[in-house]
Amino acid sequence: MKKITESDFKITSKINIKDLPTALDLGADEKAVEKALKKTRKKLAEIQNTMYAHDKYAVLICIQGMDTAGKDSMIREVFKSFNVRGVEVHSFKVPTDLELSHDYLWRHYIALPQRGKFGVFNRTHYENVLVTRVHPGYIMAENIPGVDSVDDIDDAFWDKRFEQINNFEKHVAENGTIIFKFFLNLSKDEQKYRLLRRLNKQEKNWKFSSGDLKERKLWDKYQECYEDVLNRSSKAHAPWYNIPADDKPTARYIVAKIMYDVLSQYTDIVEPELDEETKANLDLYKAQLEGE
Known about the structure:
There is one protein chain. By secondary structure, this protein is of the alpha/beta class. The chain contains twelve helices and five strands. It has helices at 30-54, 71-78, 97-100, 106-109, 131-134, 155-174, 188-200, 210-216, 219-233, 248-263, 276-280, 282-290; strands at residues 58-65, 87-91, 118-122, 177-185, 240-244. Strands 2-3-1-4-5 form a five-stranded parallel sheet, with helices on both faces. The longest helix has 25 residues, at 30-54. The model has no long low-confidence stretch (mean pLDDT 95).
């Protein structure tokens, strides 16, 4: 099976989204890829257990992608071996009235993982420079001072919003959160196949919405916005990774492997040592229990 490293997928310079691959041949069949994923996610779970005891770092995983890119199944399969106490998933949908009564980052800030845990954002704060950029009318629901009409949402508005998002990530990274941002890069042909599958398989019908087809017509606009996101917000402390997503098992393995490669570099993540008194009395404690 082809060897991969996290640097193979990291966005480190300006990109043209059309040049980014949506498929990758690992030189292995599906069973071999799934076996590699299983092995990697178990090792990730071991790291998480150590992180939980260490209690100094948190991990934030941001997953973005077009409809049908495989976000839900990605989360299910990559974190399957985790202790449930170690990972929290937040799926961000249309903002509620409560969320709209705060600034747009509030609901993401309060969902950040605590130290020792993994937090997964299924769709993320980047929806605020993706969906709202394709549909700027949505911004009006945020009731922002100085934004009285869609005409007020100009380039300077988006520049400021990117600056705010970058500052948000820099702040949490500097305070102990390790950030991964995964763009599940799906081809338009594969999306068509997956949408048709939802229509053709009765058990998948519930996943289909006519709104999916309306958004598909805006494919080029979304691609333009994603390209801007990747170019303006992939930073050393919060990098974006392009994940070829046309094959789900391959995409899942790549994501797990990237996280494992990066987290393995944190040599300071270790289980805490027992205090001297407890260490000195371990035999005594064992004798007490064995003597019951």
